[in-house]
Design a protein that fits this description.
single chain; 374 residues; alpha+beta; Chondroitinase Ac, Chain A, domain 3; Rhopdopsin 7-helix transmembrane proteins; 6-stranded antiparallel sheet; 3-stranded antiparallel sheet
Amino acid sequence: FNYKNLESSVNRSFEMVKGAKENGADPSFQVFSKVVSVVVSNPSTQKLSRSVNITFRHLEVIPPVYICAYWTETGAWSTDGCSKQDSNASRTICTCNHLSSFAVLMALHPIELVTKIGLTISLLCLTLCILTFKFCRSIQGTRTTIHLHLCICLFIADLIFLAGISQTKPVGGCRFVAAMLHFFFLAVFTWMLLEGVQLYRMVVLVFNATMRPLYLYAVGYGTPLFIVIISACVRPNGYGTKKYCWLSTDDGFVWSFFGPVCLVIFVNVFFFLITVWKLAQKFASLNPDLSNLAFTVTAVAQMCILGLMWVSGVFLFQEDPPVAVSYIFTIFNSLQGALVFIMHCLLSKQVRIQYICAKLRGSKSGQQTGESQI
C-alpha cells in the first residue's frame, strides 16, 4: 500500500533511528519518501527467511544521507532489520527481513545549515567589498582593481557553490557547475597571486609599481580559463561526481585545481618573504613604511584563510570525509567574505573616512529634503 501524503503526518519520533550520530554529528531527520506498507497472507512476517527489497523514489532530487526505516507499533521510526542496499540522488533501495510500513529518512546534518548561513553572510560582505572598491575614489589604483576582481570571482564562486554543489542531476548541468567552480576558484587564487606580485613591486620597485588593467585581466582571467579548457579537453568526464558537482578524485584529475593552487601559494610565500625582508630594512632606517607593512599582513592573512580552506578541501570531497574536515572547510569558506571585508575595508583608514563622509552626506541630504518640504 502506498499512502498518499502520510509522510507529513509521521514526520516525528526518530529517537530509535540508528545512525542518529553518524560520524559524530547530530543530524535531524525528515521523512523523504512515500510511506509504503507491505503485507502478505501469512501473519508471521517478523523474521523472513529471505530479505525483501523495496525501491523508494525520493520526494526531491538532492544527495544528503538517506536511511531506511519502518514504523513501529509504539509509534516511532526504527531501523532494526532494515538497511540501505543502494542509493543515489533520486531513489533508494532498502532491504528488510520483516514486513511493516516503510519509508526513507533524510539525515540533515547541522553543517548544512552552517554552510548556508555562513555563505549568505559571506556573499553580503563581498557585495559591500565590491561596491566599496568600485565607488570609493580615494583608494582607486592597481591594488584596488585586484581586490575588486578577487571579490567578484569569490562572490560568483560562493554563489555557485551555495546553489549548485549538490545538484548532481542532470549530469550535464552538474559538469557545468563543476567547471564554473573550477574556473572562478582558480581565478580567486590567480588574483591573489597578482596581489603578491603587486606588493613586491610596491616595495622593491616603488616608482614603477602600477600595472596596466589589460595585463591584469589577461592574467587574472586568461590563466584559469586556459587551465579549465585544457582540463576539459583532456578529461571532460572529470567534472562532476556522484555526490558533488566538483572535480573527480579519480586518476588525480582534482590536481588540475590543487596543483595551480599550491604553485600560487609557494610563489606568494616567496614574494611575501622578500617583501617582509625589504620592509625590515626600511624599519631599520629612519623611514619605516607602515602602509606597505599593513598591506602585506592583510595579504598574508587572506592567503592563509584561502589556503587552509582548500587544504581541508583536499579531504572533503573524498568518500565519507571526517566531520571535523567538513566543519573546517565550512568555517573558512563561510568566513572568507567577512574577513576580506574586515581586512580591506573596515581596517582601511581611507575607506572608513569615505564611509563616514557618505553617511554625513546622506544625513545632510535628508535634512535638506525635510527643510524643503516644510
